[in-house]
Amino acid sequence: MKNILVIGATGFIGKHLIQKLSQKNYKISCLVRETSKKEDIAYLKKMKVKLLLGDLNSPNTLGNICRGIDGVFYLAGGGDVASLSKQDFKKLESYNLTTLQNFLDSIKKLKKIVFFSSISAMGVQVGNVIDENTLCIPKIPHEQCKFQAEKLIKKYSKTKGYSFSILRPSIVYGEYGFGDSFNMIKMLNKGYFFMPGNGNNTTPWVYVDNVVDAAVLLMENGKNQEYIINHKESISFNKIINLVSKTLNKKVIIFHIPVFILKPLVFLHEKISLAMGKSPILNLYRLKSMTSDRIYSINKIEDIGYKEKLNFEKGILKTISWYKKNGYL
């Protein structure tokens, strides 16, 4: 696989993937939109990649973008995991499924796709160690869209003739990331944190460079299967908070809010929000995921040669150092 196309290169994980690929002997092309941010385009030009202009929402702009391409890393998609309203569900479908189908329809010839999915495609499952043989039970819109996207990848592989690997990362953190993990770090940096439950539950996190290492490995060695990527060590919510606080060099006051108090409040907030046609900021399903043990095995991807380079302690150190250096903390 020498000629690589990256779709979603301007995003959080995409930036790290471009860095990784540029260090190897790949010829890299990236699909970008006319509306892409100038700083993102400047970043890609600095990486000396070839820019292809197109928009996944407009099939007529795609042409045969895979001409001369051996493998594709597909990172487009995403959306708010808290989306529950019908309107937000439609947005998620458009963002994750319609765009993916437009791309798959454009393929004429291709050897391999590495598709970035999520453990969300499996639904929130607690109690047992979760691996790729665990039955998927997606319930909320975000989970359902991720699962349906995986099914599209498999379906089109039969007619388009490409092979594929589906990567399911857990909660990804790292440099350039400004999602939930960054918001948590910012709050801890202020010296306090509101934690649902007692914090003893295992929470699945993974450093972004580990994710791209896994993706590059799958491009070369992955089969037509799904692969979970998570930190090798199971980490409790309390340990995450303690390690982040230690790295920040902050004494943090933790306010533990019992789940039995949160549940009726979240239930009421969810019902009122949905009645108004809006997605709640926090819903009961997400509260369950935040306060339950969720343990994921990475044995399958280790079996094809994956080795974790950075554990959580080292990954969060690099992440916080970057935030500080760039003025975000």
Q: Please, how many helices? A: 11
Instruction: Please give the number of β-strands.
Output: 13
% residues in beta strands? 15-25%
Named CATH architecture of the domain at 3-177 and 203-233 and 296-309: 3-Layer(aba) Sandwich
Spatial ordering of strands, largest sheet: 3-2-1-4-5-7-11
**What would CATH call the homologous superfamily of the domain at 3-177 and 203-233 and 296-309?**
NAD(P)-binding Rossmann-like Domain
Short description:
The chain is built from 11 helices and 13 strands.
Kindly describe this structure.
43% of the residues lie in helices and 17% in strands. The protein has a domain at 3-177 and 203-233 and 296-309: NAD(P)-binding Rossmann-like Domain (Rossmann fold). The relative contact order is 0.14. It is globular. The strands form 4 sheets. A 7-stranded parallel β-sheet has the order 3-2-1-4-5-7-11, with helices on both faces. It has a two-stranded parallel sheet with strand order 6-13. It has 329 residues and is of the alpha/beta class. α1 crosses α6 (208-221), α3 (86-106) runs parallel beside α4 and α7 crosses α11 (312-325).
Q: How do the strands and helices of this protein lay out in sequence?
A:
Elements lengths: L2 E5 L4 H11 L4 E6 L5 H9 L3 E4 L17 E4 L11 H21 L5 E5 L12 E2 L10 H20 L2 E7 L1 E3 L6 H10 L2 E5 L8 E3 H14 L4 E4 L7 H12 L4 E5 L1 H17 L8 H8 L3 E2 L2 H4 L9 H14 L4
Parallel strand pairs: 1-2, 1-4, 2-3, 4-5, 5-7, 6-13, 7-11, 8-10, 9-12
Helix pairs in contact: 1-6, 3-4, 7-11
Keywords summarizing the entry:
two-stranded parallel ribbon; 7-stranded parallel sheet; Rossmann fold; 43% helix; alpha/beta
